Amino acid sequence: MDQLTKDKRSANMSKIRSVNTKPELLVRSYLHKNGFRYRLKNNLPGKPDIYLKKYMTVIFVHGCFWHSHKNCKRSGMPKSNIKYWENKLDKNKERDKRVIKVLKKKRLKVIVIWECQVTDAKNLSKLTKKIIG
Ligand SMILES: [Zn+2]
User: Fold this and answer.
1) CA–CA separation, 50 vs 113, rounded Å?
2) Contact criterion met (CB below 8 Å) for 130 and 111
3) Taking the chain, what is the end-to-end CA distance rounded to the nearest angstrom?
4) What is the mean pLDDT of the chain?
5) Ligand 1 centroid to 92 CA: how many Å?
6) 80 with 6: CB under 8 angstroms?
7) How far, in Å, is the centroid of ligand 1 from the Cα of 39?
8) Helix (H) or strand (E) holding 23
9) What's the 118 CA to ligand 1 centre distance in angstroms?
10) What is the per-residue burial (b if ≥16 Cβ within 10 Å, else e) of 44-77?
């Protein structure tokens, strides 16, 4: 299933890791077009990607690999250093859970959208409902 060489994979990963990942930009431009104003920089726990203060809403644009998107083909475990990756990804998952809990305690609405979902306009349009509703 995994035809990527080690080198290519680590190149892909560093792309995924960069701050202004494309999925995030797609979400941002969608929000902007729809009149939502947001802040990128915030000191909220877990540093959510997008903070819509007016709506008391934060949005995380999660990379499928880094945040272990369930049943997603982008979230496959690398073939080498499995222990390392399991450990790392488990930690990410735990942190996600913890962060979401804390944010909810602050009475913020937490929306998670996955990188594999943001290319579909239908999924993006659901965001409006989630934010306003
Ligand atoms: Zn996914």
Assistant:
1) 11
2) yes
3) 40
4) 88
5) 15
6) yes
7) 25
8) helix 22-33
9) 10
10) ebbebbbbbeebebbbbbbbbbbbbbeeeeebee
The pLDDT value given to residue 125? 92
Q: How many Cβ atoms from other residues are within 10 Å of residue 110's Cβ?
A: 17
Q: What is the token pair recorded at 25?
A: 């930009």
Q: Which of 112, 126, 124, 99 is nearest to 70 (CA)?
A: 112
Reading across the β-sheet that carries 50-52, which strands appear in turn? 50-52, 57-62, 109-114
CA of 65 to the centre of ligand 1 (A): 8
Tokens read off for 113: 């959208």
Q: Is the pLDDT of residue 46 over 90?
A: yes
Per-residue pLDDT of 52-110, as tens digits, reads 999 999 999 999 999 999 999 999 889 999 999 999 999 999 999 999 999 999 999 99
How many A from CA of 67 to the centre of ligand 1? 9
Query: What is the CA(69)–ligand 1 centre distance, in A?
Result: 5
The single-letter DSSP state of residue 118 is T
- Tell me the whole-structure pTM to 2 decimals: 0.82
